[in-house]
Amino acid sequence: MSVTAPRGFRAAGVVAGLKPSGNRDLALVVNDGPSRAAAGVFTRNRVKAAPVLWSEQVLKGGRVHAVVLNAGGANACTGAPGFQDTHATAEKVAGVLEDSAGEIAVCSTGLIGERLPMDLLLPGVDKAAAELSRGDGGLAAADAIRTTDTVAKISFRQGAGGYMIGAMAKGAGMLAPSLATMLSVITTDADLPADVLDRALRAATGVTLDRLDSDGCMSTNDTVLLLASGASGAVPAEDEFTALLTDVCADLTRQLLVDAEGASKAIAIEVVGAASTDDAVTVGRSIARNNLLKCAIHGEDPNWGRVLSAVGTTEAVFEPDELNVAINGVWVCRNGSFGDDRDKVDLRPRDVTITVDLSAGPHSATVWTTDLTADYVHENSAYST
């Protein structure tokens, strides 16, 4: 049931007419309480879409009554008129719910640089409000926020004491660090305050969604929201809740990874033996963004030299003659030179694991990426048309 798995939430996904395809393109998620505690993390891109700027301000209050999300237009780089459109959208939802716009978060996704057709979007809000439900609403909402996604992404888990966490996400392109998701709404019926939700969300996304780096392109619209209704009455320990939330975010990360635009391989880059976690992440990202390596993996060529080349562009602590690399369990590079026969590496499976041992310390991190394919180039060369 996605975001409506936890008690206290209703959702809807409707056709507002924003997508030329005629598919669902507007979603509404409402928290019926009794609590409205919320937290959010947003893109670190300095060019931020109007809905990101709006929602950042909303989340400073630590309360969210509802989230309205649209596909079919990012409302990014649209100047003051675009921000006014976001404000009008929040006011519309607030009017329907008889509440203040200051507790309405707004999310948008789609083409950058064009204003939204408000004559379609605002009536869509009325339509969504009329279809709010706990039953089918969650899946419909997850479907409505898709752009180039081939499937809706949902996840839910139950914690000790009976509380639940539900989630939906979208994202297939512009998948890079600083949330990677484009858009995600996570709900829980646990009774936790905003500061606990904030710490849990940052910890969970930091080791999951933040480490998905499919194409090195950081979105202007990335938004992850966590809403708590408190409807279960359960008050889980912070570490327990964070662990369950991390599991949900890891599930979403995997779904985003395997549905990335044009991808034929899902690649896990495990960096071990690092002097610090930051070093491990930095090395992992460098490898994930190496187009030569991504092409090699697509061609099922275990070209480990491209891995070392990517490692060498970073300022991480390591000695070149102490680097080790394994591809799908075969240590093709030992001590900065050739290791086991690369012909032993089987790259036919979709899942590929590249392990890099920096031999510099006890820290590790995993970054996820995909291969670079002709399908990816084709899809993005024709995106705006």
From TrEMBL:
One annotated GO biological process: ornithine biosynthetic process
Binding positions (substrate): T147, K170, T181, E261, N380, T385
Reactions accelerated catalytically: L-glutamate + acetyl-CoA = N-acetyl-L-glutamate + CoA + H(+); N(2)-acetyl-L-ornithine + L-glutamate = N-acetyl-L-glutamate + L-ornithine
Pathway the protein takes part in: Amino-acid biosynthesis; L-arginine biosynthesis; L-ornithine and N-acetyl-L-glutamate from L-glutamate and N(2)-acetyl-L-ornithine (cyclic): step 1/1; Amino-acid biosynthesis; L-arginine biosynthesis; N(2)-acetyl-L-ornithine from L-glutamate: step 1/4
Acyltransferase found in the keyword field: yes
Site positions (Involved in the stabilization of negative charge on the oxyanion by the formation of the oxyanion hole): T109, G110
Principal location listed in the UniProt entry: cytoplasm
Record-annotated site: Cleavage: A180, T181
Active site residues of this protein: T181
Self-association and partners: Heterotetramer of two alpha and two beta chains.
GO MF term (any one): L-glutamate N-acetyltransferase activity, acting on acetyl-L-ornithine as donor
Listed GO CC annotations: cytoplasm
Protein name (database record): Arginine biosynthesis bifunctional protein ArgJ
Catalytic EC class: transferase
Function: Catalyzes two activities which are involved in the cyclic version of arginine biosynthesis: the synthesis of N-acetylglutamate from glutamate and acetyl-CoA as the acetyl donor, and of ornithine by transacetylation between N(2)-acetylornithine and glutamate.
Origin: domain of life: Bacteria
Family per record: Belongs to the ArgJ family.
Organism: Actinomadura soli
EC number: 2.3.1.35, 2.3.1.1
Short name of one Pfam family: ArgJ
Matches recorded under InterPro entries: Arg_biosynth_ArgJ (IPR002813), ArgJ-like_dom_sf (IPR016117), ArgJ_beta_C (IPR042195)
Cell location: Cytoplasm
Keywords in alphabetical order: Acyltransferase, Amino-acid biosynthesis, Arginine biosynthesis, Autocatalytic cleavage, Cytoplasm, Multifunctional enzyme, Transferase
